[in-house]
Amino acid sequence: MPFSDLLYGLYERRLAKGLDPERLPCHVGAIVDGNRRWARGAGTGIDHGYQAGADKIAEFLGWCEELGVEIVTLWLLSTDNLRRPAEELAALLTVIERLVEDLAVGGYRLRLIGNLDMLPSESAARLKRAVDLAAETEHALDVNICVGYGGRQELTDAMRSLLLEQAAQGRTLQEVAETLEVDHIAEHLYTKGQPDPDLVIRTSGEQRLSGFLLWQSVHSEFYFSDALWPAFRRVDFLRAMRSYAARDRRFGA
Q1: Alpha carbon distance 110, 100 (integer Å)
Q2: How far is it, in rounded angstroms, from Cα 37 to Cα 11?
Q3: How buried is 220 (Cβ within 10 angstroms: 0-12 exposed, 13-18 middle, 19+ buried)?
């Protein structure tokens, strides 16, 4: 084993040992960015970058389970991504579909987060079938898969759902407006029934959320990594967890 690998292993173990289990997040969100840039740097096709990113997700979920994380939300396909060239979008959707099927067979409890009506009907149906299969299994980790997801789209869908629900009950817009509270909107979000993310990780050096979980991340902690997603290592993950554990969360106070 090269000496550098030995030092790397020692450093990684020291990071893991130094984490306080009581200060680690329950819910981790991940913006898995940088697949295309990784592919260009590696001299491979974009589809290989997407596949490398999918392969990294299995590792990432394993790291989360090791530290007792209970929920992971992965942003795989945004509403903006749907405007990419048809051939590239088809390749990305194929990778996502296979990934979700593999995770279902692996026993994860899966939940699709996003507006599936914006996807090609065949892709939406394939994803739904995989999630239905996963619903019959039990695993230590709940995994949210964000596809056809955008923060503004989620809030639009939430308000539409709320208004339709209230209209079905015979209420007028004025009555709804006079009684509307924050919790009423939260009950119609894609993630309803789940706790908000404690930590959001974004890879590739970008320091913005791009609309990821706009409502739910209001009190989240953020960690930005320079690593492109396929090159994101366990040591990078442990650094993110160490950073989170060292923070004094004030929840807006």
Answers
A1: 8
A2: 28
A3: buried
Local confidence band at 52 (pLDDT 50, 70, 90 cut-offs) = very high
Amino acid at 50: Y
Find, among 146, 142, 145, 144, the residue nearest to 69 by Cα: 142
Q: Which domains does the chain have, with CATH numbers?
A: 22-244 (3.40.1180.10)
Cβ neighbour number for residue 21 with a 10 Å cutoff:
8
Angstrom distance (rounded) from CA 209 to CA 29: 11
Which residue type does 7 have?
A: L
Q: How far is CA 93 from CA 60, 122, 151, in A?
A: 20, 10, 20
- Catalytic residues, by residue number, are 33, 81
Supply φ then ψ for residue 149, to 5 degrees.
Answer: -105, 140
Q: Is the CB of residue 75 less than 8 Å from the CB of residue 32?
A: yes
Q: How high is the pLDDT of residue 217?
A: 96
Distance CA 197, CA 243 (A): 15
| CA atoms of 7 and 208, how far apart (whole Å) | 33
Considering the chain, what is the average pLDDT of its residues?
A: 93
Distance CA 236, CA 175 (A): 50
Tokens of 215: 């409502």
For the record, the structure tokens of 139 come out as 């695993």
Tens of pLDDT, residue by residue over 158-190, are 999 999 999 999 999 999 999 999 999 999 999
For residues 104 and 136, give the distance between their C-alpha atoms in angstroms, rounded to a whole number: 9
Which tokens in the block code for residue 198? Answer: 């404690």
Residue 33, Cβ density class (10 Å: 0-12 exposed, 13-18 middle, ≥19 buried)? buried
pLDDT at 177 (0 to 100): 95
With 0.90 as the threshold, say if the pTM is over it.
yes
